[in-house]
Design a protein that fits this description.
alpha/beta, Rossmann fold, Arc Repressor Mutant, subunit A, five-stranded parallel β-sheet, four-stranded antiparallel β-sheet, 8 helices
């Protein structure tokens, strides 16, 4: 397993590298945003740890541009900011998780292990491709693609995983804690407002542009996929 660390603080970068290597990971480091972007496009990594404030190009811009060509590789953002807006921006640009500095190395290892584990079943895995349909939504679980009314809907890995969970259990209410357990493996320590953020992103991409809503909220309980039409799920 190979991890790319993009962090311009050489001491912090070395500390992260040491912690990851002690867990058996292979580590590659970059200290400049532009160089990191070239490395991300050239090689494949099992996880990318990405600082926000970088020389050359910011982590936000790198994440945004990288997601245009790679929607699968997990990205863990490191930020010195504690504001919700910065975290939301990171998620909106395609980040999978975040840590606010300063943090414990043990927590970083938990997050990375969870991201790597959850993304280990990638589109190249030798398994039977599954296609799910519900109304005018088609989900190709082999290619990790979602279409609505024949139009490709580009989702981040976490948005996609939430949709899969809801579609496979359509009509059943899924709580925020269930989604955290399913998507992050129970290691995610942020409050459940993060799930609300992802649900909002998913609705903005999958429901609102098409004028009808599949993703519903049961206040106080959770979310469910409501399909009034026949489905093969």
């Amino acid at each position: 397993m190979k991890i790319l660390i993009v962090e311009d603080d050489s001491i912090l970068s070395s500390n992260i590298a040491d912690a990851l290597q002690s867990e058996g990971y292979s580590v590659v480091k970059a200290f400049d945003g532009l160089l990191a972007e070239k490395m991300m496009l050239k090689d494949k990594y099992d996880c990318i740890i990405l600082d926000i404030n970088l020389p050359g190009k910011t982590g936000f811009d790198i994440c945004r541009d990288f997601r245009k060509t790679d929607t699968f590789t997990p990205i863990l953002i490191l930020t010195a900011f504690g504001e919700l807006e910065d975290k939301v921006k990171g998620f909106d640009l395609g980040a999978d998780d975040y840590l606010t500095k300063p943090f414990y190395m043990r927590e970083l290892l938990i997050r990375v292990n969870s991201l790597v584990k959850r993304s280990s079943k990638n589109p190249g895995d030798t398994k039977k491709d599954l296609i799910y349909k519900a109304g005018d939504i088609t989900l190709d679980d082999g290619k990790k693609e979602v279409f609505r009314n024949g139009e490709l809907v580009k989702l981040t890995p976490r948005e996609y995983q939430i949709l899969v969970k809801l579609m496979k259990n359509q009509g059943e209410i899924i709580s925020k804690n269930q989604l955290i357990e399913e998507i992050w493996g129970g290691s995610f320590t942020a409050n459940t407002n993060t799930i609300e953020v992802y649900i909002n992103f998913l609705r903005n991409k999958l429901d609102k542009p098409f004028g009808s809503n599949y993703i519903k909220t049961k206040v106080g309980y959770g979310y469910y996929f409501d399909n009034s039409e026949n489905s093969n799920l």
